Amino acid sequence: MVMIKAMSIFILLLSASRLVAGEIILQSTTSTKNSGFYDYILPLVKKSIDVDVKVVAVGTGQAIENSKRCDGDVLLVHDQESEIEFVDKGYGVKRYDLMYNDFIVVGPIDDELNLRNDTDIKTVLRKIYESQKIFLSRSDNSGTHRKENRLWELANLNPLKYSGGWYLETGLGMGATLNIAAGKNAYTVTDRATWISFRNKSDLDILFEGHPALFNQYGIIVIDKNFCPNVNISDAEKFVKWLMSEKGQEIIDSFRLGNEQLFFRSN
C-alpha cells in the first residue's frame, strides 16, 4: 500500500513538472501537420497570445489515446463520434467545430472505372470492389481510416475479406499511403489537405469528390484538468478561444497552398 501511494505521488509530481507557463502540447492529427497548417498559424498564435504550441502529430486514434494518458493540453482531430465520446467520458471539457474540408477518392488518372461520372460514393466503392482493382487502406485507426470504414459500411461492402489481395492495408500515414498508391497505380481515400500538399502525385488524380458522406469536420477540445491535473488549462483555453474567435477563423480561412484553400472556417 505504501509503495502504491508513493508511486501515485511520483506520477503526480512527474505530471506537474510538465506544466510550463505559456506552453502547451497539442495532440493532433497528421493531416493538419503535414499540410503546413501549423507552420503557418502557430507563429501567429505566438504573436497574438504569447503561447508556444508543441505539436504531437499522429493518427486521430493515437492522438485520442495519448490525450487519455494526459500527454497533452489540447486535442485536435477529425472523428466526431470519438470526440463526443471523449468529452462524454470526462476526458475533455468541451468540443468545438474548428474547421472543415472533405475527403476525396484518388486513383489512376486514366479512370478506367469511369468514377468521375459517378454521383454516389456507394457506386464508386462498389465499382472498385467488384473490379478488384488495388485499393490502399491506411488501417491505422486514424480519422481517415475510420471514415473509410464507414464509407464501406454505407455501401454495405466488406473489403477486409480480401485483405492481402486487392485490398491492401498499409498501416501507414496518409503521405506514405499516397506514395504507395502512386507506385502501384492504386485507389485510396485521402483528406483533401494532404492531397493538395502531396507532391508525388505521379499518375494519380482526384476521381470522386463532393458527396455529402465525404465531409470532414475537425474538432478541438481542451483536455479536462479534473481528469489530468497536469493540463495547462489557462493557456489551453486561451489557445482554443483564439482559434474560435473571428480573427482565428479568418486566419484559418486564409491558409492556402498555391491558390487552393485547405481548410474552411466553421463559424
Task: Explain what the structure shows.
The structure is a single chain. The protein is α/β, with parallel strands linked by helices. The chain has helices spanning 2-16, 30-34, 37-49, 60-68, 80-88, 121-131, 143-154, 174-184, 192-197, 233-244, 246-254, and strands spanning 23-29, 52-58, 74-77, 92-108, 135-137, 167-169, 187-191, 204-208, 215-223, 256-257, 260-261, 264-265. Strands 1, 2, 3, 4, 5, 6, 7, 8, 9 and 12 form a ten-stranded mixed beta sheet that branches. A two-stranded antiparallel sheet has the order 10-11. α7 links the parallel β5 (135-137) and β6. The longest helix has 15 residues, at 2-16. The chain is globular.
Series of H and E elements: HEHHEHEHEHEHEHEHEEHHEEE
Low-pLDDT ranges: 1-17
Structural class: alpha/beta
Helix content: 40-55%
Report the span from N to C terminus.
51 Å
Mean pLDDT: 92
Entry summary:
The chain is α/β, with parallel strands linked by helices.
Task: Please describe the topology of this protein.
Blueprint lengths: L1 H15 L6 E7 H5 L2 H13 L2 E7 L1 H9 L5 E4 L2 H9 L3 E17 L12 H11 L3 E3 L5 H12 L12 E3 L4 H11 L2 E5 H6 L6 E5 L6 E9 L9 H12 L1 H9 L1 E2 L2 E2 L2 E2 L2
Parallel strand pairs: 1-2, 1-3, 5-6, 5-7
Antiparallel strand pairs: 3-9, 4-7, 4-8, 4-9, 4-12, 10-11
